[in-house]
Amino acid sequence: MKHKDGKPYPPNKNSKKIQVTLIVVLLCGFSFYLGGIFYSEKETYATKEVNREDETPIGNSAGYLQTRGNSFTECSADYQDYTPCTDPRRWKKYGLHRLTFMERHCPPNFERKECLVPPPDGYKVPIRWPKSKNECWYRNVPYDWINKQKSNQHWLVKEGEKFIFPGGGTMFPNGVGKYVDLMEDLIPQMKDGTVRTAIDTGCGVASWGGDLLDRGILTVSLAPRDNHEAQVQFALERGIPAVLGIISTQRLPFPSNSFDMAHCSRCLIPWTEFGGVYLLEVHRILRPGGFWVLSGPPVNYENRWRGWNTTIEEQRSDYEKLQDLLTSMCFKLFNKKDDIAVWQKLTDNSCYKKLDNADNYPPKCDDGTEPDSAWYTPLRPCVVVPPATRKVKLNALAKWPERLHVAPERVSDIRGGSEGAFKHDDSKWKVRAKHYKKLLPAIGTEKVRNVMDMNTLYGGFAAALVEDPLWVMNVVSSYAANTLPVVYDRGLIGMFHDWCEAFSTYPRTYDLLHVDNLFTAESHRCEMKYVLLEMDRILRPNGYAIIRESSYFIDIVAPMAKGMRWSCREEDTEYSGQNEKILICQKKLWYSKESSL
């Protein structure tokens, strides 16, 4: 600055500092202002309508969301059957002992894929139920190993562009129907609604579970990803419930005292080895009064031993070891004929008192072993003793279908659980399911067969859809309250899972995924991007997702869904509240850029 006469003032260092400080403050404020304008415009843009030329309308066309969202890239074509936590590419990192390499081993965060899994070349919309039970498109599950190696057992047959499922298996090459007929003769409770839930260990292509569906029995078919190539994928492509899994060193992801029946048809599980831990795990998940069915070695060894590449003495010894082990853990031989033997888990707890004797083997598990802990929980060579009360026993449950809407006694074991809370939840989901069907008319039609409720409470959503031609896998978070026993007590199926990891299934295996405030509950632990990418992996092309969330999370999920090539629209809930909204989405059918089509 200058005097009035033009002479400059002597320089003032403090004044210069003040000027510089003011300039910096003004620039920061202006930048913050511009950033706020940009962000608010971005948020406004994120809730505008979706360009309908880019999306396939789903029911009512009103309320589409348009979001710029980041577009996810495509995975390479060799990831078409990618199962992140049971990936054969990573098997060499794990041991061969007890086939532990086939258990769940999820990749670390820095190895997680952030891409969309492509369908195989020539993929078609799956054949619809009930026709799918007997045939599927070859290009949807393009694996020939079973067809070549099991052709004499009639697991499946390739005819032109399709695989045909004649209903054969290792122990029932002439058809599963007659095999199950004999089983029903041995277990009359299969015919009167007493037996409702079952698990099939080493399921093949799930023909046993498929046949039981027609008889009112809901089966979880279980098999690892192994040299049989895509057993579980074949099952789900047929519309039959199945999950990837193996009894090895960890408990299966199911609660104790849950299944009414367990089955092994020459599943090659060494039941009497390693302290009998595999059979002890079956004992844990089978409810008192439930049945364990075994066909194949060593059953009927007197007539079959010659075809088993062994001696009659060895097979007799194996059978006696098996019988002794079963007796020691409180099973009794219930019935036996030809190739099928049936044992029943005793309901009288006096048998378990014998386990208090230190000389008995296997011993009783100590009080520190939580019976329902089943997420990465090591197997232990001890007997999980069921509670002495009637609430878990098979003969204490109402028969199917009455048991579906009867409040199980185990609901009182849950914090805040009661018969009143159960009845309220049951009624609530009847209203919600009715509203969902208005928003998504495909529910109840042949377009929706395989359904997953990604974070159920008591299985209310599944119960409300029980009359429709579909089945529901009810998932309970391994970090949530343990409500899965209630799901099984009412005659439904489900499993524990942590949605921070990939689910135990193949790509393209579900027609409908249902989310009820999952992101609200788990966003503090799980990155939403990976949960949505996992949903995309397991959802079939043209499949649907119903995402029920707070308005806050709906606005976040919508742009991510657009980036996965889903078409979505926002809808009101059945009560038209503003705090909670419903996002109805459909996954597009697209092909890899590497495709030869």
Low-pLDDT segments, ≥5 res: 1-18, 30-57, 59-68
Strand order of the largest sheet: 8-7-6-9-10-12-11
Number of separate helices: 15
Beta-strand percent range: 15-25%
Largest sheet: 7 strands, mixed
Mean pLDDT: 88
Helix content: 25-40%
Please report the distance between the alpha carbons of the first and last residues.
Answer: 77 Å
Q: Over the alpha carbons, how many angstroms does the gyration radius reach?
A: 29 Å
**How does the helix and strand content classify structurally?**
alpha/beta
> What sort of overall outline do the alpha carbons produce when their principal axes are compared?
globular
Let me know the number of strands: 19
InterPro entries: Put_SAM_MeTrfase, SAM-dependent_MTases_sf
Enzyme class: transferase
EC number: 2.1.1.-
Subcellular location: Endomembrane system; Membrane
In short:
Helix content is 27%, strand content 18%. With 597 residues, it is of the alpha/beta class.
